[in-house]
Every structure is written in structure tokens, then in C-alpha cells.
Design goal:
Layout (H helix, E strand, L loop, with lengths): L30 E2 L4 H12 L3 E2 L9 H15 L15 H13 L3 E5 L2 H16 L3 E3 L5 H4 L4 H4 L4 E3 L10 H5 L7 E5 L12 H13 L3 E5 L7 H4 L3 H5 L4 E5 L10 E5 L1 H13 L8 H13 L4 H21 L6 E3 L7 E6 L3 H15 L1 E2 L5 E2 L6 E6 L9 H13 L4
Parallel strand pairs: 2-12, 4-5, 4-6, 6-7, 7-8
Antiparallel strand pairs: 1-13, 3-9, 8-9, 10-11, 11-14
Length: 412
């Protein structure tokens, strides 16, 4: 029976299995090992040579392997007898990806962007012009604040206010209680740097309604919106319908090469296309990214609920194993994951954990975790665990055995 089999849904019993300490609301940045080219190459080679890999996401592949995968997957996603795209022509592969994305999300239209950062800035700029307000309500842990070099302020002259600084999405009361007006409410679903956390459905709808009552529009930073359906118990179109605009990523969760989409009403997307051109996003050809995105929609999107269920089981087994090993402090956050991704915190320097992981992969051909970092206190490291197809063949016993071996390499 593989990890994540039927009926395995609960988190670790009691608070002890979750550890005690920080809420895990730090950025995934901070110090980490593997900074040099040689260290990174060794880490990639060890992971690449592993026969079993637990934590997936953005796998390291050689150029040859990436090309071979695209050749293998593309025929089922699009007619390869068609011509290559030219500046994202509507009757080519990019146009097909845009139509398919709009259909999956239930929106009138969608526009392909080379990066999510560009898509987000275009969305906020369009809404600032339409609402007449340059103020955006968002979270201090959001991607826009942590990972985009203040692009919303530097490039578009916008400013951000924060309904809350707690490591969760803002509540309706916090949105209603903001002391100054704002034109756009930006919600990241899930909130990655707080631990890929989501509100409950009733909380989300109340937050959106609170923004509407303040005459604001709502934008979803939905880079990982694809895997939110299980938590909300709602299909993607019903979730997307809450917002005036939605950004989604093709390489997060869908295992694409790159690229993103901005979806919404027909007139909004048309305006976004104009700004995309101004921002330098009208690339001559984008067919590799578009083909990989179409393949991801076919291959990965239907499997995401399975990955979410499996992540819950993995989180429980990791929590139980760490508690049984007597690790003095640890945190699996959230204890019961909201999506197929969660954080794991351990009281060791990142360099020590990365070295243990590399040696385990080199010596046993088993890779548990990806890179560890120290986003907060020195000596307290965190890794993001992404459960996808790479974890399919793992049994609970496989995971327990591999975790025990990993801990032995740390002197546990």
C-alpha cells in the first residue's frame, strides 16, 4: 500500500507531534547550504541519481532529459503539425493554452505571460487605473512583498497596506477595519511563506465580501490555485469566480517549463495584453513553455487531489517519526497540510541538513528532502515538502526507514 492510501487523512495526534515554537511564518529565503556552483552541482547530481525521491517540485533534469520529456508529452497535448507561434498569435499554441486555461478556471479570457511577477504587476496596474486607487491591501508574507523586489512600488508606483501580519490570510473583520481606503485586495492562495496555508471557504467568501463592501476589487495570486480544490471542496471555476482577476502559474504544481496566465473578464484581459506588450512580455516564440503547460494541464491537474491526500499522510508519518526519535523540537506546518505542500522545521543548521541529505542520496539512492534554509533564527532550518508523482511508490514503511536513516546521519 502506498503512502496516502484510502482513509489516511488525520494529522499527528496531539500538540507534541507538531512541536512547539515559531508559527512558521517566515520567508523561504535566508541562509542555506549549496550556494557555490560545485555544491549545487553535487546536490543536483545526488538527487538526480536517486532511485526514490519523496519531495518533488521543480526536478533537476538535464537539457537532454527535458527535451525528451517535452517530445514525449507534447503530442497528446497539441497538434505538432501546427506552425510555431509568432508573438503569441491567437490561432496557435499560445492561443490554445490561453483558451484552455480560461475554460479550466471558468473565466471569460486568459492571457499568457512569461513570468508571474509580470502578470501580477500588470493586474495591479490595471486595477489601479480602473479604481482610481494606487493602494493595494495585501499580506507582508505575500509573494509580491517577499519575492518581487517591491515591483508593485518601484515599477507601478503603488503602495501596500496590511490588514494583518499574522501568518494566515486576513479575516473579513481585519479587511473591514483597515483605517484607509484601498482599491484592490490581493489574496495569495495558498499563502506560501506562511506554510502554504488557506482559509476555510466561509472565511474566504467573507473576506471577499468585506472588500466589495469597501468598493474594492479582488485579485487572487493563485500561482498554486490548482491544488486548492480539495481544501475548499469547490471546483476551480467556483473558486476563481470570487475574484475579479486571477493569476496562475504553469510551472508550480503543473510541472511546466515556465510561464503564467492572468485570467478574468474579456475587457480586463484585453487591457492586460496591452500592458504585457509595454512590459516586454510579447515574446517572439514561446511554444516550448506553452506545450509544457498544456501537457501539465493534461497530466498533473487531475492528479493534484491525490497528491494533497498523500501529503496529509506523509506529514503524519514524518511527525510521528520525529516524535518517536526523540527530536527535541520540530514542526510540521501545517500539521495537516492544506495543499500538497507543507513546511518541515528542524533544530539544525541548514548546511548540516543539506549535507546529510546529499550523503543519504549518494549512498542509498534515496532522497527525502530538497534544500534546507534558515529563514529565521540561525540553527533553525526549514524545508518545503512538495508531494507529487515522485512519491507515488513510497510505502509508509519506506518513509519511516528513510527518515530514521536521515536522522542517524544527524547523530539522532
Amino acid at each position: 500500500m502506498s503512502v496516502g492510501g484510502a482513509g489516511v487523512e488525520s494529522g499527528p495526534p496531539g500538540a507534541e507531534a507538531d512541536g512547539a515554537g515559531p508559527a512558521g511564518g517566515s520567508s523561504a529565503g535566508g541562509s542555506s547550504a549549496g550556494g557555490s556552483s560545485a555544491e549545487r552541482s553535487r546536490m543536483l547530481a545526488a538527487r538526480h541519481g536517486a532511485e526514490r525521491v519523496l519531495a518533488g517540485g521543480s526536478p533537476g533534469r538535464t537539457l537532454r532529459e527535458q527535451l525528451a520529456r517535452l517530445v514525449a508529452d507534447a503530442p497528446a497535448a497539441y497538434d505538432l503539425a501546427d506552425w510555431t507561434d509568432i508573438y503569441g498569435n491567437d490561432d496557435g499554441v499560445v492561443g490554445e493554452l490561453e483558451r484552455r486555461t480560461a475554460d479550466v478556471l471558468g473565466t471569460e479570457a486568459a492571457a499568457f505571460f512569461p513570468t508571474g511577477t509580470m502578470a501580477q504587476q500588470v493586474a495591479l496596474r490595471c486595477w489601479a487605473g480602473r479604481t482610481g486607487s494606487t493602494t493595494v491591501a495585501g499580506h507582508p508574507l505575500s509573494h509580491m512583498e517577499v519575492h518581487e523586489r517591491d515591483a508593485y512600488a518601484v515599477v507601478s508606483g503603488l503602495r501596500m497596506v496590511h490588514p494583518t501580519s499574522e501568518p494566515r490570510l486576513p479575516t473579513a473583520a481585519e479587511i473591514s477595519g483597515l483605517q484607509e481606503p484601498f482599491g484592490t485586495l490581493a489574496l495569495e492562495l495558498p499563502l506560501r511563506d506562511a506554510g502554504f496555508v488557506l482559509p476555510e471557504w466561509a472565511e474566504l467568501t467573507a473576506a471577499v465580501e468585506a472588500a466589495r463592501e469597501r468598493d474594492a476589487v479582488v485579485h487572487f495570486d493563485g500561482a498554486r490555485l490548482w491544488e486548492c480544490t480539495s481544501h475548499f471542496g469547490r471546483p476551480l471555476p467556483e473558486i476563481a469566480a470570487l475574484a475579479d482577476s486571477v493569476y496562475v502559474s504553469y510551472y508550480k504544481s503543473l510541472d511546466g517549463i515556465s510561464g503564467a496566465a492572468l485570467a478574468g473578464s474579456e475587457d480586463f484581459v484585453e487591457e492586460a495584453r496591452a500592458w504585457r506588450h509595454r512590459y516586454g512580455g510579447q515574446l517572439f516564440q514561446q511554444w516550448p513553455a506553452a506545450l509544457a503547460a498544456l501537457a501539465g494541464l493534461e497530466r498533473e491537474l487531475p492528479r493534484l487531489p491525490e497528491y494533497v491526500a498523500r501529503a496529509k499522510a506523509v506529514a503524519r508519518i514524518l511527525g510521528d517519526g520525529l516524535a518517536e526519535a526523540g527530536v527535541p523540537w520540530f514542526r510540521v506546518h501545517p500539521r495537516v497540510p492544506h495543499t500538497h505542500q507543507f513546511q518541515l522545521w528542524l533544530p539544525h543548521p541548514a548546511a548540516e541538513l543539506n549535507e546529510a541529505g546529499i550523503r543519504q542520496a549518494e549512498e542509498t539512492r534515496t532522497a527525502l528532502f530538497r534544500t534546507w534554509s534558515e529563514p529565521g533564527l540561525a540553527g533553525l532550518a526549514m524545508t518545503e515538502v512538495t508531494i507529487d508523482s515522485s512519491a507515488t511508490e513510497w510505502t509508509p514503511e519506506d518513509l519511516r526507514t528513510a527518515l530514521a536513516d536521515f536522522l542517524r546521519r544527524l547523530g539522532r
